[in-house]
Amino acid sequence: MTLARSLRVLVVDDQMSMRALMRSYLRKLGFESIDEADSGKNAFLELGKRPYNLVVSDFNMENGTGLELLVNMRKHPVLKRVPVIMVTGNNDQASVTSVVQAGVNGYVVKPVSQDALKARIVKIFGPIE
Amino acid sequence: MADEEAELRGIFLLECDELVGTAEASVETIRGGGGAEAAIHALFRAVHSIKGGAGAFGLGRLADFAHAFETYMDRLRKGTAPLDAAAVDLLFDGVDVLRALAAEVREGEPAPAARYDAALRALRAAGGLEVADSPAAGSVDFDPLADAAVPVDGGGSEAARLYRIRFVPGPKMIGAGIDPLRILETLKELGALSVELDASRLPALAELDPSVCAFAWNLTLETAAGRDALDEIRDMIDDVATFEFEAAAPSAPDPAALEAPGSQPSPAAPPSLPPATEPAKPREKAVPTVRVDVPKLERLGNMVGELIITQAFLARQVAGLDPDAHRQLFRALDEMSQHIRDLADSATSIRAQPLRAVFSRFGALVRELEKSTGKRVRLEITGDQVEIDKTVVERLSEPLTHLIRNSIDHGVEDAAGRAAAGKDPVGHLHLRAEQRGAQVVIELVDDGKGIDRSRVLAKAVERGLVPPGATPSDQEIDELIFLPGFSTAEAVTSVSGRGVGMDAVRQAIGEMGGHVGLTSRPGLGTTFSLHLPLSLAILDAMVTLVGRQNYLIPITAIVESLRPAAASVVRMDDAGAMLAWRGALLRIVPLGAEFGVRDWRTDPTQCILVIVRPSGGEPFALQVDDLIGQEPVVVKSLEKNYRKVKGVSGATILGDGRPALILDLPTLSAATLARRRLERQAAEG
């Protein structure tokens, strides 16, 4: 059993296509338990329902941004330990700075490649395969 | 794998349509002035999402364009670019090009290159991005090959200091998802940046590794941001690149003289070019397709049609059998009929295309017309997902363009006129489509001043189209504008007075087997309705008998069938008769007289009256001898095989093998009106 198979991931993005793409990447990296949320707010609700090992969240969302999600998670007694990888726009230095300061575990810049995502995940968990 | 990618891209393209729609609505709001801040935010988000998706799915042109758009939006958002009329125009252009680029991916038809280039250039300029000399399609926003030091606009301020920076991307930088260009752009945001390219690590072509950046840059940055900002950037990319900087005297920016302390060319890394820019070729379609000759498709359609006729024949043959004794047979026939219907739907959908393909152009048209007329108009589009034969979609562009021009030119009042009439100063134009049975109905509704009937009539009399002293009804007057050569435009305007009249519209639609109708209410507006047949139309029809002929009435148009009581039939002095029905008087149209049938029953009380309401029209009563029953029929074009016959939309072969005509209700009522008018005039002398 690979590490990836044992990890439950929450993908957060307000674009369905981006969630589908991220899910496809994660599946190819060996993840099997992948859930989705379409906003920061819904992600936070989802995180309360079952334990997650990793959150991959978009930064720019209408209903609760990735930063708000991250900040709320870091304030939470349990969720503060859940690793978060943030997906940011490619000319958005300010948002990178803000999520780094808020305690993000890694960030990837759009357009996200499977390898970039993998590199960030490996940096957090070590080899996942 | 490739399938999955195509599917994901398909999802994105759908999303993209929505996002473009949101963007367009936001620009409309911005132009309207209400809630501009929220609208700018919404627009920014939409463009941002398009950019992200386009990047993820490798749609370079779309991503590049959205990036330039987003950068400009960012300026608008921050208030560093003015939000004036020119800005709104630019935003509209941007939205149009985004839509064209999305269509380019979907349809494989390249977006107009000139518009793309012009809009990209304008957005880059307005967004403070570097404008390349030649906006080569697919070029990146920041040209890393610029070998001269290029000063870039930035917000220099009083306490600005000069820094010399050496930036060497390491072999893992791109793999880690960090685009070196982003660093340059980030620096540019801090102040005035001069860029010098160091291409000394560039290897021979054969040794290029596209995943590694072989370039390095010597930079001079004049900024008030201070060391902290540069420290922050260095921390961010510390593990994947070399980023050295030192403060320099502000007077002599000589980046060439900069020694790069500790810069390591990292020889272990196979050096390379930055990611190749994308050629401007249209991308393949999102869904795999095959090309088929149209005649082959037509043959398929015809075969399906024959199948339906055979099925109707079978149904008639077994109609006399006892259903209980032949339960299996009836069940099999039912199933077959369902399968044939599905087959017919598939055959139709092969040739179908959503109306969006033509409707999406009209946003730009309306804006262009707004400029040339000085009127303000909001275009609302609904039902653009309705599908119709591809050849029809293509041929709709011209007549619809004319109708829209006509509505804005003649229908919608200018702002002062609208204000005087107590209307919203912004005119409203609604283009909507829906499928009704075997027809697609497209309506263009304006809330303008309606048709000026007295002027239309005066003009018609002047042109000898109507005898002086005639008193045509409102509907008859409205019909006059479709007569060849009729035009009420007092001066030929640049907008719709182009020698193309409404008769050309009616003709064009007629050639597609459809027809045009209109209703108008003075002061309230005008509605044009285009009724178009589906390519392989299967129609549920009521088979009627008149003399020894069968005439078919589309079931969807039938309100009621009745045998009238003598008291409810009112004879009129113009030799016609009316039916008193639900508190109204309906014109009775005797089909026998209309088509010159022999041996038809002339007394309405001995007949069946079928009350029909053509889509968008007034109800009237068709007088037939008898009703035979309901039957699904395949509509065949009479024009293709014979010629256009007034009052008839097509022909078919019934289950018993006999040919029958399908009634075209709107023209039938119009033809009757016209004939009555002529008769009346003849009677008057």
What does this structure look like?
The complex is a heterodimer of chains A (129) and B (685). Chain A is an alpha/beta fold. Chain A has one domain: 3-Layer(aba) Sandwich (Rossmann fold), CATH 3.40.50. Helix content of chain A is 45%, strand content 19%. Chain A is built from 6 helices and 5 strands. Chain A has helices at 3-6, 16-28, 40-49, 66-75, 93-101, 114-125, and strands spanning 8-12, 33-37, 54-58, 84-88, 106-109. A 5-stranded parallel β-sheet of chain A has the order 2-1-3-4-5, sandwiched between helices. Chain A is globular and about 35 Å long. The model of chain A has no long low-confidence stretch (mean pLDDT 89). Chain B has 685 residues and is of the alpha+beta class. In chain B, strand 18 (608-612) and strand 19 (620-624) form a beta hairpin. In chain B, helix 3 (60-78) runs antiparallel to helix 4. Chain B is elongated. Mean pLDDT of chain B is 78; it is low at 132-158, 250-286 and 489-499. The chains are: A alpha/beta (129), B alpha+beta (685). The A-B interface holds A 14-18, 20-21, 24, 58, 60, 62, 89-91, 93, 96-97, 100, 108-113, 115-117, 119-120 and B 4, 8-9, 11-12, 14-15, 45, 48-49, 51-53, 55-58, 63, 67, 70-71, 175-179, 182, 185-186, 189, 232-233, 236.
What is the element layout, followed by pairings?
The complex is a heterodimer of chains A (129) and B (685).
Chain A: H1 3-6, E1 8-12, H2 16-28, E2 33-37, H3 40-49, E3 54-58, H4 66-75, E4 84-88, H5 93-101, E5 106-109, H6 114-125
Helix pairs in contact in A: 3-4
Chain B: H1 2-32, H2 36-56, H3 60-78, H4 85-107, H5 113-127, E1 161-169, H6 180-190, E2 191-198, E3 216-223, H7 227-237, E4 241-248, H8 294-318, H9 327-350, E5 352-354, H10 356-359, H11 362-373, E6 377-382, E7 387-389, H12 390-411, H13 415-420, E8 427-436, E9 439-446, H14 453-462, H15 474-480, H16 502-511, E10 515-521, E11 525-533, E12 538-546, E13 549-554, E14 558-562, E15 569-571, E16 577-581, E17 584-590, H17 591-595, E18 608-612, E19 620-624, E20 626-634, H18 638-641, E21 648-653, E22 659-663, H19 665-684
Helix pairs in contact in B: 1-2, 1-4, 2-3, 3-4, 3-5, 4-5, 8-9, 11-12, 12-16, 14-15
